[in-house]
C-alpha cells in the first residue's frame, strides 16, 4: 500500500472509493480496507481506502480526484491522506470555493508534501 486515505465516516470512504475507482489511471489499484464487525454488529467496518501507486503521476491523479470529490461534499467532510511518514489533511470547506487554478495549485502542494519535497503550511493542511 502506497497511500492510505481516511475519513470520519465509513459512507464517505465508500463514496471516495467509488470516485477513485472511476479514474482510469487508478483502475485495479484502489481497495477498501475493513476490519471484522464488533460483537453484535453486522458487516465489516470500513477503515480506509488504500491506493497502490504506479509510476507516472498516479499521486497527482489521486490528489486531484480527492479534491474534486471534496468539492461536492456537504458539511464538514475531512480526508487524511498518508504516504509513509507524510500526512496531508484537507476539508471540504477548504476546497469548496476554490477556482480551478487554485485547485491545481493545491493539488501540486499536496503531491509535493506527500513526496516529501515540501512542507505544507497553514489552516487544515498539516504535514
From TrEMBL:
TM helices/strands, residue ranges: 52-70
InterPro entries: EACC1
Keywords for this protein: Membrane, Transmembrane, Transmembrane helix
Transmembrane listed as a keyword: yes
Pfam families (alphabetical): EACC1
Protein name, UniProt field: Putative membrane protein
Organism in which the protein naturally occurs: Saccharothrix espanaensis (strain ATCC 51144 / DSM 44229 / JCM 9112 / NBRC 15066 / NRRL 15764)
Lineage, highest ranks first: Bacteria, Bacillati, Actinomycetota, Actinomycetes, Pseudonocardiales
Amino acid at each position: 500500500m502506497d497511500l492510505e486515505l481516511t475519513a470520519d465516516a465509513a459512507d464517505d470512504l465508500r463514496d471516495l472509493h467509488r470516485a477513485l475507482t472511476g479514474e482510469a489511471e487508478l483502475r485495479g489499484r484502489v481497495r477498501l480496507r475493513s476490519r471484522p464487525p464488533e460483537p453484535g454488529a453486522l458487516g465489516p467496518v470500513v477503515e480506509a481506502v488504500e491506493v497502490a501507486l504506479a509510476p507516472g503521476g498516479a499521486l497527482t491523479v489521486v490528489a486531484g480526484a480527492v479534491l474534486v470529490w471534496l468539492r461536492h461534499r456537504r458539511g464538514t467532510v475531512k480526508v487524511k491522506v498518508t504516504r509513509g511518514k507524510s500526512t496531508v489533511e484537507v476539508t471540504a470547506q477548504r476546497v469548496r470555493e476554490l477556482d480551478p487554478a487554485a485547485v491545481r495549485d493545491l493539488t501540486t502542494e499536496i503531491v509535493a508534501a506527500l513526496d516529501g519535497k515540501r512542507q505544507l503550511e497553514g489552516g487544515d493542511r498539516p504535514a
